[in-house]
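SAMPLE LOG
Freezer: B-3
Tube label: C17
Construct: single chain, 225 aa
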Amino acid sequence: MNNVQKKYFIGLTHFLGNVLGPKYEVVFHSIDKNKASMEAIANSHVSGRTLSSPLSSFASSMLQEKVYLDKDFIFNYKAVADSDKMIRGSTFFIKNGDKLEGILCINHDTSELVETMSKLISLENLGSFVNVLGIDPALNNSEESEITSKEKLEHSIEEILSEYIDLMSLDTDKNLTLRQKEYSIKVLFDKGIFNIKGAIPIVAKFLKMSVPSVYRHLKLIKNKE
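STRUCTURE (predicted):
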């Protein structure tokens, strides 16, 4: 993606943020050599993230699985921020043929809406009525919404790594065996962690390896794919 295209999507991000309002966080990531960088974020108070925050582990996993080859977008999946807000996420894949050049994400904070509807249902004793109709006021059960996993909107790469490996156990004088290191790198690779810009040196730090060693292990993994 060239600078002109980036400028266009950065402008679109802030436009959508203003039009949709403060309950909608809009985020644009560019993808360069399979590495994602956040270029713009509007209404960042929804998740508390900044431009230095990494691509979420959920989005990294989608990139690793190449979901974008079969879909132009996904929407209405669950997401969660630090405050445990109820968020509905949607992602649009910016593609050039089969090449992914960026993603545009919209995260809707539905916390107040769900709380208000829940109070109304309780106040008017509508619970049985809602159940009969099969309506879940917190969800839009669209056939297009096939993603059932919950996205966590992380603030740092370390936070993402902690979801898959025990960082506390690594922060000791005890060294992992070569096999343990190889296994850790394979797990992180399968989860798409190395699609996040800046992940390799941080992984190397925690695994007590050199950056070139991590690259060598990644090359071996990719050659086996």
